[in-house]
C-alpha cells in the first residue's frame, strides 16, 4: 500500500494520460465518459486513501443508472425555434446505447429514480442488467488508446467482479475531481453534438450541457417547500426570516460537485445565496450543517422522499470531507457572510466533517 502522496511529476502524468484518453481513445458511445465519471465520483464519496481502491462492478452499474437517468428522458429544445422536434438524444454511433434503452424503459414504469430505488426487485434487476453491460463493454476497453493499453487507472481482470484502482489513483481523482469532471463533460457533449442524427434535434445554440448534467429545477422547487417548514422560514446562513423568493442552495456548491442529495440542501435568502456563489461555507456554517444532518437527517430524508429527492447522509458528508480537505490543502478561503467576508479553510473544517463521517459509520454499526 502506498504511504506517500504522488509526486508533482506523477500528478502531471495522471492529468496528461486522462487528457490523452479523452482526446485519442476510441469512442463509439458515451459509455467510457460515464465510466470515467463514475470512477471519479466514487473516489470522492469513499474514504481518502493513498493505496488501491476496490470498486465493485455492481456499484458502477448503480452510478451508470444515476448518470443516464436524466439523459434518457426526451430532449426538449425549449426556446430554440430552429429545433422543431422532440426526442431522445443518441448516445451511440449506431443504434441507441443499450443502457439508455434500459433506463428509459425503467422510467416509463417508474418516473422517479428515488421510487425505483425503493422497489428492491426492480432496482436490483435494472442495476444488475446495467452492470453486465458495463463489464462487457467499456470496462476493459476504456484504457485502449491508439491501439495500445495504458492501464494507468486499474489492471484489467475480465473475470473479476470489481476493479482495483492503482495506488494513488483514488487520491488523484479526489484532488483533481473538478478538472476531471470538466474534461469528461466537455468531451461527452462534443461526442453527442458530433453524431449526425442528433443534429436536427439539437438545432442551434441550445443548452445541451444543462440538459445532460444540470440540476433538476422542478425538484428543487419541491425541496423548497420541505425546507421552509424545517427551517421555520429562516435563512440557514444569516438566520433572518426570508423575505421574498426562497432560494434552495447547494451547501457544497454545485460547481464543486454535482450533488443533488437532500442532505446537501439548505434554504437561504436571495442575498446570502447570491453572495455565497461558489464558496464553501466557513467553519461556523459547516458545524451547524453537519449537526443538522446528524440530528435531523432521518426526518429530513423522510420528508424529501415524497418530493422525489434522494438522500444519503454518508455520501453527502463524504463529498464535504473531500471538498474541505482539498481547499485546506490549497490554502483556499471559505465564505462567512453577506459582505463576502472570508476566512482560510482551516484544519477545524476537515476535523468537523471527519467527525461527522465517523458518527454516521458508528450509527450504522449499532
If you had to describe this structure to a student in words, what would you say it looks like?
With 366 residues, the protein is mainly alpha-helical. Helix content is 54%, strand content 7%. The protein has a two-stranded antiparallel sheet with strand order 1-4. A two-stranded antiparallel sheet has the order 2-3. Strands 5-6 form a two-stranded antiparallel ribbon. Strand 2 and strand 3 form a beta hairpin. About 2% of the residues have low confidence.
Draw up the topology in text.
Layout: H1 8-24, H2 31-45, E1 53-56, H3 57-71, H4 98-109, H5 113-118, H6 120-136, E2 144-145, E3 148-149, E4 162-165, H7 169-175, H8 177-194, H9 199-202, H10 208-213, H11 217-230, E5 247-250, E6 265-268, H12 270-276, H13 283-304, H14 313-330, E7 333-335, E8 342-344, H15 347-364
Antiparallel strand pairs: 1-4, 2-3, 5-6, 7-8
At a glance:
By secondary structure, the chain is mainly alpha-helical. Helix content is 54%, strand content 7%.
**Can you tell me the number of structural domains?**
2
Number of helices: 15
Mean of residue pLDDT? Answer: 88
Structural class: mainly alpha
Low-confidence stretches: 79-85
Q: What share of the residues does DSSP label as strand, in percent?
A: 5-15%
Helix proportion of residues, in percent?
40-55%
What gyration radius follows from the Cα positions, in whole Å?
21 Å
Shape from CA axes? globular
Largest sheet: 2 strands, antiparallel
Can you write the helix and strand succession as a string?
HHEHHHHEEEHHHHHEEHHHEEH
Q: What quaternary form is this?
A: single chain
Total number of strands: 8
